[in-house]
Amino acid sequence: MNFNEYQTRARTTAMYPDRDHNYIYPTLGLVGEAGELANKVKKICRDHGGVLDEAQTQTIAEELGDVLWYASNLASELKLPLDEVATRNLEKLASRKVRGTLHGSGDHR
Predict the structure, then answer these.
(1) Would the pLDDT of 109 be above 70?
(2) Which residue in 75, 69, 58 sits closest to 23, CA to CA?
(3) Alpha-carbon distance 109 to 92, whole Å?
(4) What pLDDT, in 10s, does the model give residues 28-75?
(5) Ramachandran area for residue 53 (φ above 0: left; ψ -120 to 50: alpha; else beta)
(6) CB count in 10 Å sphere of residue 94
(7) Is 78 helix (H, G, I), strand (E, B) or coil?
């Protein structure tokens, strides 16, 4: 499956207020799911010394799927093909690598 196919299929399960005119809902969902993911990782660090077992790995995979779903639906709200978003991100990172600016801060390095 490619990103655009995922985006199309994810969109069929997007049931939220004012769909197709509501970038706020998937943005807030994305942040919420990212927070859930971070909290699960934090507890693995705290309770298991950062060592993952198969069950924890699967739990993380489920949370990553939720993050992906919200990112995909945010892209849909913004009329951005997810393949294009992914490609542009890799191009940006490749450019930073070539220029030696992967490390550091700021959006425009």
Answers:
(1) no
(2) 75
(3) 9
(4) 999 999 999 999 999 999 999 999 999 999 999 999 999 999 999 999
(5) beta
(6) 11
(7) coil
Average pLDDT over residues 6-11: 98
- Burial level of 93, CB count in 10 A (0-12/13-18/19+)? exposed
Alpha carbon distance 13, 73 (integer Å):
10
Residue linked to tokens 């945010």 = 74
Who contacts 76 (Cβ-Cβ below 8 Å, separation ≥6)? 7, 10, 11, 14, 20, 26
User: Which token pair is 12?
Assistant: 């069929």
The reported pTM is 0.91
Residue 56 DSSP code: H
- Say how many Å lie between the first and final Cα of the chain, rounded: 32
Compute the distance between CA of residue 22 and CA of residue 28 in angstroms, rounded to an integer. 11
B/e letters for 35-63, b = 16+ CB within 10 Å, e = fewer, are eebeeebeebeeeeeeeeeeebeebeeeb
